[in-house]
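Amino acids appear as letters; backbone shape is given numerically. Here is one record.
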Amino acid sequence: MVELNEGDTNSTKSKSNERKSLIIPIISHLKDGSDMPVQADPNLFIEIFPEELPTLDSSTIIEVLKDEDAPLSIYADAALEYVRGRKEQDGAAVLSAACKMESQCSSKDIRVRVLASAGIAHLTQANKLGGGDTLELNGKTAQQQAAADQNEELRSVSEELFNKATTFDQFFPMTWVGKGILNLNIGKIKAARFFFDTTIRQCGQVLPALLGEAAVNFIDGNYKEAQDLYAKVMTLYPEESGASVRVGFGLCCYKLNQVDRAKASFKRAYQIDPQNVEAMVGCAVLEIASVDETAKDFLLKTENAMKLISMASYIDHSNAMVQNHLANHYFHKWSQVHGTVSIRKGQKEVHMSQPIPLENGERIRIGQNFESAVVKDDDDMMMDESVFKIKDPWTKNSQTGLKLWKKDYDRVFSLAKDAYNSTTVQEIQAESLFLLARVYHVREDYPNAHKFYDKACKLAPDLSPARFGLAQVLIWQEKYGDAAAHLKLLLLKSPTATDALAALGLLEIKENRKEALSNLKKAVDLDPLNTELILLEAFALQQEDADYSHALESYYRAVTLMQKQGKDISHEVWTNMGVLCQETKQYKKALENYAKALDVLDDGLESNIAGKENDLNTEIESECLIKFKQNSFFWKYIETNLRTTVDTETTILSINVDEKSERSSDLERLREGDHIKLGDKFETEIISIDLDAKEVTIKDKYVFVDENTNPVSLFVKRSNNRLKKPSVITIAFNLARLHESAGEMIPSIELHKAIVKQHPSYVNSYLRLACIARDCSSILNCSQWLSAACKVAPGNTEVLSLVGNLHLSLCDWEPAQKVFNELVGRAEESKNESVKAYSQLSLGNIYFNNLNTPKKYAKHLFYAAKFYKQILSKDNANAYAANGLGTILAEKGELLKAKEVFNRVREISGGTIPDTLLNLGHIYLAQKKHPEAIQMYQKYMTTITATGAPVTSKSQEDNEVEILMYIAFAYFDWAKQTELFNDIKAADADGRYKHCIEYIDMAMKKSKKENVILRYNWCRAKLQAANCVLQKLQRNIRRTAQEVRDALAGLEESLPVVQKLLQWKSEKKRIPIATSTLNDFISHCKANIVSAKSHLSEELKKENEARELLELQRREVEQHQRDREREQSMKEALAKMEEEKRERRAQEKMNRISHLVNAWDRQKEEAMLIEKEKIAKKESKKKGLKGPNVPSAVDEAGVFDNDVPQDNKNLFDDSDDNDSIDGEETTKKTKKAKKATPTSNELFGDDSDDSDDENELALSSEKNDNNDGNNADPTPAKKAAHSSKDLFGDSESSGGESDEELVPQTSEKRSNVDVENTENPSNKKRRVIGGDDEEDE
């Protein structure tokens, strides 16, 4: 409570923390009995110091104040001091007394102050008393009801006081603050906010109003706004705000995940007020939450934090928050019990050194790590008080003097209950209820646990631990839908709650598998190192056959993590892994996992596998029920005191008895048929024993003899007592089933027999022995094992179901019907819907299989449909019942509806019901959709062959024979339908008849007994196939003699078979075929044989003719081939010759080019010599000397110019035309050069191919040259042209090739040509015209 003096309501300054003494003026001695006011003596007063006022009783102070007629302000000051001294109740009493006297006060402000303060004081008292909703299992007591009434009365008084204060001053801030607190207390948040906001607007930043506004924001979840308001208060009122404001600020920081600021705020509040309970609790809780469990100082810090909470409880033992924290602490704390205990390995009985009171279901801890629960039943009442039983067996070695620890749940219950009754905050009350529910939960008092969990969830819907506990209890009560609903609500608030995700996944694994697996995977992803979550995921996956491999992967991952973390792996995990490996056909790995499971059990329980010396006699005398090597987990070799000398030549062993041994001779304990081991390697079996001669005859001769062998020790095979442990039976049964899956029936039977020998009440082994006998067609043994099972477990539904199925396999419909009717009655009594549905399904199948009963077709069809519908009315997802209903529809002829039902069943069941394939095949066959029918039949047969699906009404072989006949009939009907075309479209009928015959042959090979129907069907198919072959010519279908021959053979094979059947029929044997039918077959067969022989002769004649024609055609083809080859060889020879000719011409041209190049080189040299002469001649002219003799120069030039044409000289002559050269000398030289130049015929020889063209070209050139009127001698030009023609050749004669392309022109040649064209530009044109004129002539 905060004091507000007159005139300071708008002040924002800090006030002095100095506390003044209480001054009471003394006027009682001046009173004279009249009503006249008395003037007090200022020097006479009573002074009460602030420190001593809380020590005085409020009634004394009230009496003094009344006697002295103290003003109301002194009442208010006294009440304030009481509040500061944590005496709220005394302060409220003083204010209540002041309110009775407020009418005597003339000051309106003081009256309003007193009334408002009194209202707040009463409201505080109401909060101290609690909400009135006390916790009592059996209802409220009278005392609790009185407290609730008092609480309500205090609130009413507070409201009256506030209303009265408002009549004097409706704007007094304390009145508005009080009304805000009242509304906040009763849950009217909006009204409370209104009063606090109004106070702040009207009166300014008043401390109580600011605190009320902050509280409203905190309750509304506006933690940031509340934090800002608390910070503002600490800024404006740093001293008056005190520790409580720091606590509020710390709570806001915590809600905003500002943990460090929250911790600092709580510490500061604790420093300001060491007795502030909320600050102490905040410091302790955050300290515990911040400590790492692996840290060295974890225990020390935890202990200090709990000491702080205990101190807070000592200061305020009625604080609900403190009590809840203490209750939670004691819920987890182990308290040591006086005395010690002793326990043996593998035992559940614990012996105490002194009697200790323990309740049923109470959690205890023996030593440091082993935890279990106390178990008490009626038999324990007769036991010694110093002995009690625990739920789990002791897995460690036998020990004595162990300390015993237990949980103090009574203290938890008391603290939580008191916490609930001492608060009105629903969240805190919900936490108290949650703690109480946990106590009931751990004590397995599920009804009360459900009650308190549910109430906690209603008070605080966001309290996730309480909701999860409620879901757990609902699961135990088998209310799975309600549990799933609560888990979904929990996940909406806490989507990362891994335990809730895992639990929801397990609940939904059957209804919504995809969503369930998604939740489990999410839980594992959130906590990938949590092996329990991984194991739960594996457990969920193993519920569906398709996920076995994924489940196995999860188990391996969990095992790997557990091994890394050093955790023990239970035998259940290894067993589940073994089963999954077995189901996925990993038999070797399955065996390894089962071995590990057995090893875990050996380590955890007291084992007699390794026999001791003093137990050898007992072990040798015991019977060895298991001998096969595949079952080596359950036997061992025991060493005897017998020695023997071995010999490889005989099977008789001479036994040497060690007479000095303390044990008596073991020879008498040996029995015929015992498996023994000689030495370390050789194993054999005893055939006979001669005690007098001390000789033993063994089955096999010894084969490991050497010099150091004799004598050898004798070991005998005996049971290792593993099967005596109840926990091993499940593993042993799984091993037997593993042998069955691997095809090792004898070891499996041996192990099952050993199980029932050691544990006669284990029904599953009886059932498996019965099933093995049934599968081996040993009906007698099957019935014997079932009878034994019925004696061991009378009324067992599994046994009765198997008995009914045995009757079904034998087609004993009436006994089967009685058994299943009994099962229906038992299921209704026990409310076992699964057994009831199975029994009704079997009854429906019985009625359906007896539709052919005379005059009962409609009745049986009606009852079959009735049973199927009853199943579907309870479980519309029952695929077997839906499949049966589909058969009813098909029987009624509603094929489309039946087909739709079968397809739907096939989709839902995922192929687990093979009968749907068979039924679909029948539907398709009825609809004449033969390919689809055959496909369904073949898929059905593949399914039952691969999976070994059990068939209740017939053996596996008979079922396969029946399916083969269905396929054969489908081909037969398909072939007959194809023959209806009666033209070339019927060509495929013959092949389909062949397929039909093939499948009938397969059926006859599969059938172990003579089947007359199969034989007749085979003959019928042969006859029809022969008819099809014989009619091929009429249908314009080609056939061969071999086909006719095969048809004839089939007819000849069929005829004696049918004749034999007719003979049996005449002999009164049971042949289910009419005599007329057999006679008709024989007549048709004989007629077809005659016809087939005629057709065969015709076909043979046609084939011979065709063979001759084919031979002639072959010869013609061969002759034509030879002619073509000869023609081809000639073409190749001509082409080769042409190629050689082209190559030769090319070579000649290359030779010519080479010769021409050499000539050009010589011509160039000659031109150089001529040039030198010209130069020399010019020089001689200049000097006036006489030049050299020209003829001699010409002769000299002729020495080198042997072959070069004269006209080519100009090609290499660089001299200018203006050079002064003697024309006569030049003419002479030209003539000599012409004479020296050979013709083209002389140079290359005569070329007949192009000589004519060359001559014509030469003549044309000569004519043109003469027409030009040049002074040069035309003869050289003519011959030069001729030689040029010969030199480069004609393009036509060279096959399109040009020597000019092979030999590039030199620069000198090109320049001469250009000069010639430049000097006489019309030369070329005249030549062309001349050439044309010549051609025209």
